[in-house]
Amino acid sequence: xxxxxxxxxxSGPGGYVAAIRCAQLGMKTALIEKYSTLGGTCxxxxxIPSKALLSSSHHYEEATKHFEEHGIEIPGEIKVNLEKMxxxxxxxxxxxxxxxxxxxxxxxxxxxxxxxxxxDATHIKIDGKDASEIEAxxxxxxxxxxxxxxxxxxxxxxxxxxxxxxxxxxxVPKHLIIIGGGVIGLELGQVYYRLGAEVTxxxxxxxxxxxxxxxxxxxxxxxxxxxxxxxxxSHKVKSVQRKGEEVIITAENKKGETVxxxxxxxLVSVGRRPYTDGLNAExxxxxxxxxxxxxxxxHLQTSAxxxxxxxxxxxxxxxxxxxxxxxxxxxxxxxxxxxxxDYNLIPGVVYTWPEVAAVGKTxxxxxxxxxEYKVGQFPFRALGRARASGDIDGFVKILADKITxxxxxxxxxxxxxxxxxxxxxxxxEFRASAEDISRYSHAHPTFAEAVKEAALAATEDRxxxx
Length: 466
Ligand code: FAD
Ligand code: NAD
Prior knowledge:
Pfam families: Pyr_redox_2, Pyr_redox_dim. By secondary structure, this protein is of the alpha/beta class.
């Protein structure tokens, strides 16, 4: 039986990053993955394929709606070849997962293909292509998550689908009904409305992206409405039925009235659930809580002292970069180091266009905590760079402590915000004040100038360009 310092179950961004860091720190490392490709949800059916389709559909929208205003004329009709678009997406995925194979070899990590299950706290059975049993002193559970569902919905994977199927449809839906106006619903909703589908978003709460700052929800809602999407807030879905090629969704609105939506596809995007099926966690003494998460302490250690857990399978935001931070955290903990993660400073991004990005506290949270704060907001339309590109929608909002001026939250919607948020994270990691941000130089003309201007607005209401 092969013996390891550490074995990691699951090769998503949590697991494979943990494996690399463990190997870098001199540990003999094994990585177990039940699928034939590495990279988990993120690389195979999550972050990467969804961004590939968002990019392709963005190009199409630019070509059909905006090229002309830039003086670019394309003779003849511009058409979508969905098969080719999906094939390109798959090529991007294949290239990216192959990159992980390379990294595993480079770092001399032993990869096992097969379902990993605990025999006891130091032994794992692998069922599948690389069937075997291995021993490890330390084990990291990184088994991720799967789409969750409502109890009365049957996902048939043809017309009543999750994000996994929505990433490989064979036709553009005529009318896509999306249950859940969260990140997945909006990103994939935008892909398909750009490609020509009618889109209806049915959301239980009174706004889309209900956990983000309300200002961002409102602005993105406007974008979807402008694209003629039906945004049905405060609707509780009661049933989903399929009749041939038709799907019928019944919901109850705020007034208690029954409302029906008819379409040809229904995307169920109501969140994801931690995944521990087949792991046999109890054999190792690993406790699973009533939310299905592996229970961990502040060191990400489970109820079995030599076993740790990271990523979507434990508490906290279900984000790839959060899983990665936790992978590094556990590897360094195992090496005797004292790493740290500030969960308040894990940014959240929605990759629609305009992009939505945030870090730190929302206005709603500051109000609930009775924190006195000031707001500096700056619209992108006031920037020369935004006008030059034609991307004028959105704003940057900085929330700072009223007395100390420390930045407490940054919320933005607009072009390139997914990248701009890194500046806010850096500033907050160093506990910058709004004035600090307003005093360092931002290249002109850039979208980043909106961050400086919002900081100026928060400092003394002295933005320069509004
Ligand atoms: P996962 O990536 O889920 O990986 C877990 C792996 O463990 C899987 O490969 C699974 O097969 C394997 N596994 C499970 N059980 C076993 C077992 N018993 N034995 C062997 N292997 C096992 N996050 C972002 O930050 N940015 C985004 O843009 C983004 N976009 C997304 C888009 C979509 C459509 C979806 C669905 C998710 C998206 N996410 C995004 C979320 C992101 O994918 C997850 O947060 C991330 O993948 C979690 O990483 P993980 O390592 O915890 O688990
Ligand atoms: P989500 O939690 O973002 O959104 C789910 C939405 O469904 C919420 O708005 C919720 O109010 C709504 N909802 C729940 N029950 C409902 C019901 N019965 N009827 C109508 N609406 C209902 O979940 P998601 O969009 O499925 O995404 C899952 C996870 O994947 C998220 O945690 C997210 O972090 C991650 N993800 C991240 C990205 C990114 O970082 N860009 C992209 C995609 C997914």
